[in-house]
Amino acid sequence: xxxxxxxxxxxxxxxxxxxxxxxxxxxxxxxxxxxxxxxxxxxxxxxxxxxxxxxxxxxxxxxxxxxxxxxxxxxxxxxxxxxxxxxxxxxxxxxxxxxxxxxxxxxxxxxxxxxxxxxxxxxxxxxxxxxxxxxxxxxxxxxxxxxxxxxxxxxxxxxxxxxxxxxxxxxxxxxxxxxxxxxxxxxxxxxxxxxxxxxxxxxxxxxxxxxxxxxxxxxxxxxxxxxxxxxxxxxxxxxxxxxxxxxxxxxxxxxxxxxxxxxxxxxxxxxxxxxxxxxxxxxxxxxxxxxxxxxxxxxxxxxxxxxxxxxxxxx
Length: 315
Ligand SMILES: NC(=O)c1ccc[n+]([C@@H]2O[C@H](COP(=O)([O-])OP(=O)(O)OC[C@H]3O[C@@H](n4cnc5c(N)ncnc54)[C@H](O)[C@@H]3O)[C@@H](O)[C@H]2O)c1
What we know:
By secondary structure, the chain is of the alpha/beta class. Helices cover 39% and strands 20% of the residues. Strands 3-2-1-4-5-6 form a six-stranded parallel sheet, with helices on both faces. A three-stranded antiparallel sheet has the order 7-8-9, with helices on both faces. The radius of gyration is 19 Å and the shape is globular. Nicotinamide-adenine-dinucleotide is lined by residues 9-10, 12-16, 36-38, 41, 78-83, 93, 97, 100, 103-104, 119-121, 123, 144, 148, 176, 225-227, 230.
């Protein structure tokens, strides 16, 4: 059977390289191709990462080209500016990163890849634009959304309750940004509602939304960028895309009427498999969480509308 290649665009950077590292060391795919506008950086990363495959069974990391992408392949886009220390928001990256994304999609879409996974920020807006520009169905173009925020939630709860993160059924949903929220009312561990789980106290989650949002900021202030967490999350998503059976992950999905939301891409629980991404429409959010999701979507919708108007205005 032909094996897909994972093309990482922006792979000279921290997030792209961490993604390649997670994919290579976990042997999730056998062929990883790096593309970056800075070709020297891409070559350096490919050489270094290739050396990390010495104890694998036939994995290679190499420099790739857009022309090599086939309809079997998975394209992960990490290209673009990242937030700088001192409080810059993800949305402020939009104009620069949308231009970069437009150039990349113009080269990727004609190759008709199996999937395009958007990681660059602001991830929900760029996912929506990438989907629209690519002309591909929403099952094949999506973003990492709140998958990283959810990983942070699982780690915090898992460590506090002494339970494996993989056992925790709980998602952060909405925008990967200032209006994200942990949907705790349906959260459970082994089927037991989170609120009834041994060791749980309301104090544990009283500031969880702020803590999760602040963790990105704290990492950026301390070491300039965040990458190991998101690299591992992208590897998990790629692994799910290779399976015939579904895995539920919170991803930025283009909405087609789910939860009565407007036309945006936003973090929702989605079933992920070889046949693509399918958002789950009946996640049992309570009234407050439903309101938070609508608010988050309305913020994203106004950013998309504003960006579309500005893009149409001659400079
Ligand atoms: N979705 C998430 O949860 C999440 C988490 C962390 C970071 N990010 C985002 O990922 C992006 C990358 O972050 P980083 O820390 O790796 O930044 P970085 O500056 O280290 O890397 C970005 C790379 O993109 C390359 N690039 C720029 N324009 C390009 C183009 N047109 N074609 C190909 N490559 C191009 C640059 O040369 C650079 O190597 C940022 O937008 C950041 O905000 C997202």
